[in-house]
Protein backbone atom coordinates (compact mmCIF):
# COMPACT_ATOMS: atom_id res chain seq x y z
CA UNK A 1 0.00 0.00 0.00
CA UNK A 2 1.36 3.41 -0.96
CA UNK A 3 1.12 5.89 1.87
CA UNK A 4 1.30 9.59 1.15
CA UNK A 5 2.52 12.09 3.72
CA UNK A 6 1.93 15.19 1.61
CA UNK A 7 -0.86 16.59 3.82
CA UNK A 8 1.16 16.32 7.04
CA UNK A 9 1.60 19.62 8.88
CA UNK A 10 2.36 18.46 12.40
CA UNK A 11 4.61 15.60 13.51
CA UNK A 12 4.27 14.13 16.99
CA UNK A 13 7.23 12.33 18.49
CA UNK A 14 6.99 9.85 21.33
CA UNK A 15 9.83 10.37 23.81
CA UNK A 16 10.81 7.23 25.78
CA UNK A 17 12.59 4.73 23.51
CA UNK A 18 11.90 6.89 20.46
CA UNK A 19 14.09 9.91 21.23
CA UNK A 20 16.00 8.53 24.19
CA UNK A 21 16.73 5.28 26.06
CA UNK A 22 14.17 4.34 28.70
CA UNK A 23 13.05 0.72 28.69
CA UNK A 24 16.64 -0.43 29.19
CA UNK A 25 16.68 1.33 32.57
CA UNK A 26 13.48 -0.43 33.61
CA UNK A 27 14.99 -3.79 32.55
CA UNK A 28 18.11 -3.04 34.60
CA UNK A 29 15.95 -2.07 37.56
CA UNK A 30 14.00 -5.33 37.30
CA UNK A 31 17.23 -7.31 37.26
CA UNK A 32 18.45 -5.49 40.35
CA UNK A 33 15.11 -6.03 42.06
CA UNK A 34 15.23 -9.77 41.28
CA UNK A 35 18.74 -9.97 42.76
CA UNK A 36 17.59 -8.27 45.96
CA UNK A 37 14.76 -10.76 46.33
CA UNK A 38 16.77 -13.82 45.24
CA UNK A 39 16.47 -15.36 48.75
CA UNK A 40 12.70 -15.73 48.22
CA UNK A 41 12.08 -16.64 44.57
CA UNK A 42 13.63 -17.32 41.17
CA UNK A 43 14.40 -14.30 39.00
CA UNK A 44 11.85 -15.42 36.44
CA UNK A 45 9.04 -15.74 38.97
CA UNK A 46 9.89 -12.36 40.52
CA UNK A 47 9.77 -10.75 37.06
CA UNK A 48 6.38 -12.24 36.33
CA UNK A 49 4.93 -11.31 39.70
CA UNK A 50 6.27 -7.75 39.50
CA UNK A 51 4.61 -7.31 36.12
CA UNK A 52 1.32 -8.60 37.53
CA UNK A 53 1.62 -6.18 40.46
CA UNK A 54 2.30 -3.28 38.09
CA UNK A 55 -0.76 -4.17 36.05
CA UNK A 56 -2.88 -4.43 39.20
CA UNK A 57 -1.71 -0.99 40.32
CA UNK A 58 -1.73 0.69 36.91
CA UNK A 59 -5.28 2.11 37.16
CA UNK A 60 -4.33 3.71 40.50
CA UNK A 61 -0.70 4.72 39.97
CA UNK A 62 -0.50 5.24 36.22
CA UNK A 63 2.73 5.06 34.20
CA UNK A 64 6.14 6.16 35.38
CA UNK A 65 8.95 5.52 37.83
CA UNK A 66 7.15 6.42 41.07
CA UNK A 67 4.35 3.92 40.51
CA UNK A 68 6.95 1.34 39.49
CA UNK A 69 8.84 1.83 42.78
CA UNK A 70 5.64 1.58 44.82
CA UNK A 71 4.85 -1.69 43.03
CA UNK A 72 8.35 -3.02 43.79
CA UNK A 73 7.91 -2.17 47.49
CA UNK A 74 4.55 -3.95 47.58
CA UNK A 75 5.92 -6.94 45.65
CA UNK A 76 8.89 -7.24 48.02
CA UNK A 77 6.55 -7.42 51.02
CA UNK A 78 4.33 -9.97 49.31
CA UNK A 79 6.92 -12.27 47.75
CA UNK A 80 8.96 -12.41 51.00
CA UNK A 81 5.82 -13.10 52.98
CA UNK A 82 6.61 -9.96 55.01
CA UNK A 83 10.15 -11.10 55.73
CA UNK A 84 12.00 -8.63 53.53
CA UNK A 85 14.67 -6.61 55.36
CA UNK A 86 14.70 -2.85 55.73
CA UNK A 87 18.07 -2.83 54.00
CA UNK A 88 16.37 -4.26 50.91
CA UNK A 89 13.59 -1.67 51.23
CA UNK A 90 16.16 1.10 51.19
CA UNK A 91 17.80 -0.48 48.17
CA UNK A 92 14.47 -0.53 46.34
CA UNK A 93 13.91 3.18 47.00
CA UNK A 94 17.39 3.83 45.67
CA UNK A 95 16.70 1.92 42.46
CA UNK A 96 13.90 4.43 41.84
CA UNK A 97 15.97 7.48 42.70
CA UNK A 98 18.76 6.29 40.43
CA UNK A 99 16.28 5.90 37.58
CA UNK A 100 14.98 9.44 38.07
CA UNK A 101 18.54 10.79 38.18
CA UNK A 102 19.76 8.96 35.05
CA UNK A 103 21.27 11.11 32.34
CA UNK A 104 19.35 11.23 29.07
CA UNK A 105 20.91 9.16 26.30
CA UNK A 106 19.65 10.20 22.87
CA UNK A 107 19.03 7.53 20.25
CA UNK A 108 20.74 7.53 16.85
CA UNK A 109 19.96 10.43 14.56
CA UNK A 110 17.50 12.17 16.88
CA UNK A 111 19.01 15.63 16.86
CA UNK A 112 19.63 15.50 13.10
CA UNK A 113 16.08 14.51 12.32
CA UNK A 114 14.47 17.06 14.65
CA UNK A 115 16.64 19.85 13.25
CA UNK A 116 15.77 18.91 9.68
CA UNK A 117 12.04 18.41 10.18
CA UNK A 118 11.49 21.42 12.42
CA UNK A 119 12.12 23.56 9.31
CA UNK A 120 9.07 22.31 7.44
CA UNK A 121 6.76 20.95 10.10
CA UNK A 122 5.45 21.84 13.53
CA UNK A 123 6.92 19.26 15.88
CA UNK A 124 5.23 18.25 19.10
CA UNK A 125 6.34 15.87 21.83
CA UNK A 126 3.66 13.41 22.96
CA UNK A 127 4.60 11.22 25.87
CA UNK A 128 3.04 9.50 28.87
CA UNK A 129 4.26 8.91 32.41
CA UNK A 130 5.17 11.14 35.33
CA UNK A 131 4.77 14.78 34.37
CA UNK A 132 7.81 16.06 36.27
CA UNK A 133 10.02 13.17 35.17
CA UNK A 134 9.18 13.69 31.50
CA UNK A 135 9.75 17.44 31.74
CA UNK A 136 13.08 16.83 33.43
CA UNK A 137 14.16 14.36 30.75
CA UNK A 138 13.21 16.77 28.00
CA UNK A 139 15.24 19.51 29.63
CA UNK A 140 18.24 17.21 30.08
CA UNK A 141 17.92 16.16 26.43
CA UNK A 142 18.55 19.68 25.14
CA UNK A 143 15.79 19.13 22.56
CA UNK A 144 13.16 21.49 24.02
CA UNK A 145 13.57 24.16 21.36
CA UNK A 146 12.68 21.88 18.48
CA UNK A 147 9.18 21.41 19.85
CA UNK A 148 6.26 23.71 19.37
CA UNK A 149 4.27 21.97 22.08
CA UNK A 150 4.87 19.37 24.79
CA UNK A 151 2.06 17.08 25.85
CA UNK A 152 2.34 14.60 28.70
CA UNK A 153 -0.69 12.30 28.62
CA UNK A 154 -1.86 9.99 31.40
CA UNK A 155 -2.48 7.38 28.71
CA UNK A 156 -2.15 7.10 24.93
CA UNK A 157 -5.45 5.76 23.72
CA UNK A 158 -7.54 6.96 20.78
CA UNK A 159 -9.51 9.31 22.99
CA UNK A 160 -6.38 10.97 24.38
CA UNK A 161 -5.07 11.63 20.87
CA UNK A 162 -8.42 12.90 19.59
CA UNK A 163 -8.63 15.39 22.46
CA UNK A 164 -5.07 16.52 21.83
CA UNK A 165 -5.60 17.09 18.09
CA UNK A 166 -8.81 18.95 18.86
CA UNK A 167 -7.12 21.12 21.41
CA UNK A 168 -4.27 21.93 19.03
CA UNK A 169 -6.72 22.43 16.17
CA UNK A 170 -5.08 19.82 13.93
CA UNK A 171 -6.97 17.52 11.56
CA UNK A 172 -6.08 13.83 11.91
CA UNK A 173 -5.11 13.75 8.21
CA UNK A 174 -2.52 16.47 8.88
CA UNK A 175 -0.92 14.65 11.82
CA UNK A 176 1.85 12.07 11.80
CA UNK A 177 2.89 10.30 15.01
CA UNK A 178 6.28 8.62 15.30
CA UNK A 179 7.09 6.18 18.07
CA UNK A 180 8.35 2.81 19.19
CA UNK A 181 5.15 1.40 20.66
CA UNK A 182 2.58 -0.14 18.32
CA UNK A 183 0.03 -0.07 21.10
CA UNK A 184 0.55 3.54 22.20
CA UNK A 185 2.05 5.41 19.26
CA UNK A 186 0.76 3.66 16.15
CA UNK A 187 -2.56 1.79 16.34
CA UNK A 188 -4.62 4.51 18.11
CA UNK A 189 -3.52 7.00 15.42
CA UNK A 190 -4.39 4.74 12.51
CA UNK A 191 -7.76 4.12 14.15
CA UNK A 192 -8.58 7.84 14.30
CA UNK A 193 -7.43 8.27 10.67
CA UNK A 194 -4.17 10.03 11.44
CA UNK A 195 -0.77 8.81 10.24
CA UNK A 196 1.86 6.88 12.15
CA UNK A 197 5.36 5.58 11.59
CA UNK A 198 6.78 2.81 13.75
CA UNK A 199 10.44 2.94 14.80
CA UNK A 200 10.92 -0.10 17.07
CA UNK A 201 13.30 -0.05 20.02
CA UNK A 202 15.26 -3.23 20.69
CA UNK A 203 13.17 -4.06 23.75
CA UNK A 204 9.45 -3.55 24.43
CA UNK A 205 7.67 -3.63 27.77
CA UNK A 206 5.26 -6.55 27.89
CA UNK A 207 2.36 -4.16 28.54
CA UNK A 208 3.04 -2.42 25.20
CA UNK A 209 3.11 -5.59 23.12
CA UNK A 210 0.29 -6.30 20.68
CA UNK A 211 -0.82 -9.40 18.80
CA UNK A 212 -0.03 -9.63 15.13
CA UNK A 213 -3.74 -9.76 14.35
CA UNK A 214 -4.14 -6.23 15.70
CA UNK A 215 -1.74 -4.78 13.16
CA UNK A 216 -3.09 -6.68 10.15
CA UNK A 217 -4.16 -4.38 7.35
CA UNK A 218 -3.18 -1.23 9.26
CA UNK A 219 -1.49 1.34 7.05
CA UNK A 220 1.71 2.34 8.77
CA UNK A 221 5.37 2.13 7.85
CA UNK A 222 8.12 0.64 10.01
CA UNK A 223 11.63 2.11 9.98
CA UNK A 224 14.73 0.66 11.57
CA UNK A 225 16.03 4.10 12.55
CA UNK A 226 14.74 7.66 12.80
CA UNK A 227 17.37 8.55 10.21
CA UNK A 228 15.30 6.78 7.52
CA UNK A 229 12.56 9.33 8.06
CA UNK A 230 14.19 11.74 5.64
CA UNK A 231 13.95 9.22 2.81
CA UNK A 232 10.37 8.25 3.57
CA UNK A 233 8.98 11.75 3.97
CA UNK A 234 10.60 13.22 0.89
CA UNK B 1 -7.14 49.81 46.01
CA UNK B 2 -9.97 49.40 43.49
CA UNK B 3 -9.45 46.37 41.25
CA UNK B 4 -11.32 46.12 37.97
CA UNK B 5 -12.11 42.78 36.37
CA UNK B 6 -13.74 44.17 33.24
CA UNK B 7 -11.01 42.95 30.86
CA UNK B 8 -11.13 39.37 32.11
CA UNK B 9 -11.92 36.81 29.42
CA UNK B 10 -10.54 33.63 30.94
CA UNK B 11 -10.80 32.42 34.53
CA UNK B 12 -8.43 29.77 35.84
CA UNK B 13 -9.47 27.69 38.82
CA UNK B 14 -7.09 25.82 41.05
CA UNK B 15 -8.49 22.38 41.94
CA UNK B 16 -7.22 20.97 45.27
CA UNK B 17 -8.73 22.89 48.20
CA UNK B 18 -10.34 25.38 45.83
CA UNK B 19 -12.92 23.17 44.12
CA UNK B 20 -12.63 20.11 46.33
CA UNK B 21 -11.17 18.90 49.64
CA UNK B 22 -7.56 17.73 49.47
CA UNK B 23 -5.29 19.00 52.22
CA UNK B 24 -7.55 17.45 54.85
CA UNK B 25 -6.74 14.01 53.44
CA UNK B 26 -3.02 14.70 53.65
CA UNK B 27 -3.44 15.84 57.28
CA UNK B 28 -5.35 12.66 58.08
CA UNK B 29 -2.63 10.60 56.37
CA UNK B 30 0.06 12.33 58.42
CA UNK B 31 -1.83 11.58 61.63
CA UNK B 32 -2.15 7.94 60.66
CA UNK B 33 1.54 7.81 59.74
CA UNK B 34 2.53 9.32 63.10
CA UNK B 35 0.41 6.71 64.89
CA UNK B 36 2.10 3.89 63.00
CA UNK B 37 5.52 5.20 63.99
CA UNK B 38 4.58 6.11 67.58
CA UNK B 39 6.95 3.44 68.97
CA UNK B 40 9.90 5.44 67.62
CA UNK B 41 9.15 9.15 68.01
CA UNK B 42 6.63 11.75 69.16
CA UNK B 43 3.90 12.71 66.70
CA UNK B 44 5.27 16.23 66.47
CA UNK B 45 8.78 15.11 65.62
CA UNK B 46 7.50 12.64 63.03
CA UNK B 47 5.46 15.41 61.40
CA UNK B 48 8.45 17.69 61.19
CA UNK B 49 10.76 15.01 59.85
CA UNK B 50 8.25 13.85 57.26
CA UNK B 51 7.93 17.42 55.99
CA UNK B 52 11.71 17.70 55.73
CA UNK B 53 11.83 14.42 53.83
CA UNK B 54 9.12 15.62 51.43
CA UNK B 55 11.06 18.82 50.78
CA UNK B 56 14.27 16.87 50.21
CA UNK B 57 12.50 14.61 47.70
CA UNK B 58 10.36 17.29 46.03
CA UNK B 59 12.83 18.09 43.20
CA UNK B 60 12.93 14.39 42.33
CA UNK B 61 9.36 13.23 43.02
CA UNK B 62 7.34 16.41 42.50
CA UNK B 63 3.89 17.01 44.00
CA UNK B 64 1.22 14.40 44.57
CA UNK B 65 0.27 11.29 46.48
CA UNK B 66 2.82 8.86 45.01
CA UNK B 67 5.81 11.00 45.99
CA UNK B 68 4.22 11.51 49.42
CA UNK B 69 3.96 7.75 49.95
CA UNK B 70 7.55 7.18 48.84
CA UNK B 71 8.65 9.84 51.35
CA UNK B 72 6.65 8.13 54.11
CA UNK B 73 8.32 4.80 53.31
CA UNK B 74 11.76 6.40 53.42
CA UNK B 75 10.94 8.30 56.62
CA UNK B 76 9.70 5.13 58.31
CA UNK B 77 12.99 3.37 57.56
CA UNK B 78 15.00 6.34 58.80
CA UNK B 79 13.09 7.25 61.94
CA UNK B 80 12.91 3.62 63.09
CA UNK B 81 16.60 3.18 62.40
CA UNK B 82 15.65 0.35 60.03
CA UNK B 83 13.52 -1.37 62.65
CA UNK B 84 10.11 -0.69 61.16
CA UNK B 85 8.00 -3.81 60.59
CA UNK B 86 6.71 -5.04 57.25
CA UNK B 87 3.20 -4.75 58.65
CA UNK B 88 3.76 -1.03 59.07
CA UNK B 89 5.17 -0.82 55.53
CA UNK B 90 2.01 -2.42 54.19
CA UNK B 91 -0.07 0.03 56.22
CA UNK B 92 1.85 2.96 54.69
CA UNK B 93 1.19 1.73 51.15
CA UNK B 94 -2.48 1.43 52.05
CA UNK B 95 -2.61 5.01 53.32
CA UNK B 96 -1.56 6.07 49.82
CA UNK B 97 -4.02 3.79 48.02
CA UNK B 98 -6.84 5.05 50.24
CA UNK B 99 -5.94 8.63 49.37
CA UNK B 100 -6.01 7.88 45.65
CA UNK B 101 -9.36 6.11 46.02
CA UNK B 102 -11.06 8.85 48.06
CA UNK B 103 -14.30 10.22 46.67
CA UNK B 104 -14.21 13.85 45.58
CA UNK B 105 -15.93 16.20 48.01
CA UNK B 106 -16.83 19.52 46.38
CA UNK B 107 -16.48 22.72 48.39
CA UNK B 108 -19.37 25.10 49.00
CA UNK B 109 -20.85 26.78 45.95
CA UNK B 110 -18.47 25.26 43.43
CA UNK B 111 -21.01 23.91 40.96
CA UNK B 112 -23.14 27.07 41.21
CA UNK B 113 -20.23 29.35 40.51
CA UNK B 114 -18.86 27.30 37.61
CA UNK B 115 -22.28 27.08 36.00
CA UNK B 116 -22.81 30.84 36.30
CA UNK B 117 -19.37 31.93 35.14
CA UNK B 118 -19.08 29.45 32.28
CA UNK B 119 -21.76 31.51 30.52
CA UNK B 120 -19.64 34.64 30.22
CA UNK B 121 -16.06 33.43 30.53
CA UNK B 122 -13.83 30.67 29.30
CA UNK B 123 -13.01 28.56 32.35
CA UNK B 124 -9.82 26.56 32.65
CA UNK B 125 -8.61 24.24 35.38
CA UNK B 126 -5.01 24.80 36.46
CA UNK B 127 -3.65 22.33 38.96
CA UNK B 128 -0.41 20.65 39.94
CA UNK B 129 0.39 17.14 41.14
CA UNK B 130 0.10 13.68 39.66
CA UNK B 131 -1.40 13.86 36.19
CA UNK B 132 -3.49 10.70 36.46
CA UNK B 133 -4.68 11.51 40.00
CA UNK B 134 -5.82 15.00 39.01
CA UNK B 135 -7.61 13.71 35.90
CA UNK B 136 -9.33 11.08 37.98
CA UNK B 137 -10.46 13.63 40.57
CA UNK B 138 -11.83 15.90 37.86
CA UNK B 139 -13.77 13.03 36.37
CA UNK B 140 -15.15 12.01 39.77
CA UNK B 141 -16.12 15.64 40.43
CA UNK B 142 -18.53 15.75 37.49
CA UNK B 143 -17.22 19.24 36.66
CA UNK B 144 -15.34 18.39 33.45
CA UNK B 145 -17.84 20.02 31.11
CA UNK B 146 -17.51 23.46 32.66
CA UNK B 147 -13.89 23.67 31.58
CA UNK B 148 -12.60 24.68 28.20
CA UNK B 149 -9.12 23.42 29.02
CA UNK B 150 -7.43 21.35 31.72
CA UNK B 151 -3.81 22.00 32.57
CA UNK B 152 -1.83 19.91 35.05
CA UNK B 153 1.47 21.65 35.77
CA UNK B 154 4.52 20.13 37.45
CA UNK B 155 4.82 23.39 39.42
CA UNK B 156 2.98 26.72 39.65
CA UNK B 157 5.63 29.36 39.34
CA UNK B 158 5.58 32.53 37.23
CA UNK B 159 7.27 30.74 34.34
CA UNK B 160 4.72 27.92 34.30
CA UNK B 161 1.85 30.42 34.14
CA UNK B 162 3.52 32.56 31.46
CA UNK B 163 4.01 29.50 29.27
CA UNK B 164 0.41 28.45 29.80
CA UNK B 165 -1.02 31.87 28.90
CA UNK B 166 1.22 31.99 25.85
CA UNK B 167 0.17 28.57 24.75
CA UNK B 168 -3.51 29.42 25.18
CA UNK B 169 -2.98 32.81 23.53
CA UNK B 170 -4.32 34.78 26.51
CA UNK B 171 -2.96 38.14 27.65
CA UNK B 172 -2.14 38.33 31.37
CA UNK B 173 -4.53 41.30 31.72
CA UNK B 174 -7.37 39.08 30.45
CA UNK B 175 -6.68 36.26 32.89
CA UNK B 176 -7.96 35.79 36.42
CA UNK B 177 -6.72 32.94 38.59
CA UNK B 178 -8.72 31.75 41.60
CA UNK B 179 -7.21 29.54 44.27
CA UNK B 180 -6.47 28.82 47.89
CA UNK B 181 -2.68 29.04 47.81
CA UNK B 182 -1.04 32.48 47.96
CA UNK B 183 2.23 30.93 46.88
CA UNK B 184 0.93 28.93 43.92
CA UNK B 185 -2.30 30.56 42.79
CA UNK B 186 -1.96 34.25 43.65
CA UNK B 187 1.52 35.77 43.87
CA UNK B 188 2.95 34.35 40.61
CA UNK B 189 -0.06 35.76 38.76
CA UNK B 190 0.20 39.23 40.28
CA UNK B 191 3.90 39.18 39.42
CA UNK B 192 3.22 38.49 35.72
CA UNK B 193 0.51 41.22 35.70
CA UNK B 194 -2.44 38.89 35.58
CA UNK B 195 -5.29 38.94 38.12
CA UNK B 196 -5.86 36.67 41.09
CA UNK B 197 -8.46 36.12 43.78
CA UNK B 198 -7.61 34.29 46.96
CA UNK B 199 -10.16 31.91 48.50
CA UNK B 200 -8.39 30.40 51.53
CA UNK B 201 -9.04 26.83 52.66
CA UNK B 202 -9.11 26.21 56.40
CA UNK B 203 -5.76 24.47 56.35
CA UNK B 204 -2.65 25.14 54.28
CA UNK B 205 0.33 22.86 53.71
CA UNK B 206 3.46 24.35 55.27
CA UNK B 207 5.18 24.32 51.88
CA UNK B 208 2.48 26.64 50.49
CA UNK B 209 2.70 29.20 53.27
CA UNK B 210 4.19 32.64 52.55
CA UNK B 211 5.47 35.43 54.78
CA UNK B 212 3.25 38.46 55.20
CA UNK B 213 5.97 40.62 53.65
CA UNK B 214 5.56 38.76 50.36
CA UNK B 215 1.93 39.78 50.01
CA UNK B 216 2.41 43.42 51.01
CA UNK B 217 1.16 45.82 48.35
CA UNK B 218 0.02 43.01 46.04
CA UNK B 219 -3.31 43.78 44.37
CA UNK B 220 -5.53 40.78 44.95
CA UNK B 221 -8.83 40.24 46.72
CA UNK B 222 -9.53 37.62 49.35
CA UNK B 223 -12.94 35.97 49.57
CA UNK B 224 -14.21 33.70 52.30
CA UNK B 225 -16.14 31.52 49.83
CA UNK B 226 -16.33 31.00 46.09
CA UNK B 227 -19.95 32.11 46.35
CA UNK B 228 -18.80 35.71 46.91
CA UNK B 229 -17.30 35.67 43.44
CA UNK B 230 -20.61 36.68 41.87
CA UNK B 231 -20.70 39.88 43.93
CA UNK B 232 -17.08 40.78 43.26
CA UNK B 233 -17.10 40.16 39.52
CA UNK B 234 -20.32 41.98 38.79
Automatic annotation (TrEMBL), chains A, B:
Entry-linked InterPro entries = HAD-like_sf, HAD_sf, PGP-like_dom2, S-2-haloacid_dehalogenase
State the SUPFAM superfamilies in the record: HAD-like
Q: What Gene Ontology terms describe what this protein does at the molecular function level?
A: hydrolase activity
Q: Which UniProt keywords apply?
A: Hydrolase
Question: One of this protein's Pfam families, by short name?
Answer: Hydrolase
Name the Gene3D superfamilies for this protein. Answer: HAD superfamily/HAD-like, Putative phosphatase, domain 2
Domain of life (superkingdom): Bacteria
Q: What is this protein called?
A: Haloacid dehalogenase
Specify the species: Aquaticitalea lipolytica
Traced from the root, the source organism's taxonomic lineage reads:
Bacteria, Pseudomonadati, Bacteroidota, Flavobacteriia, Flavobacteriales
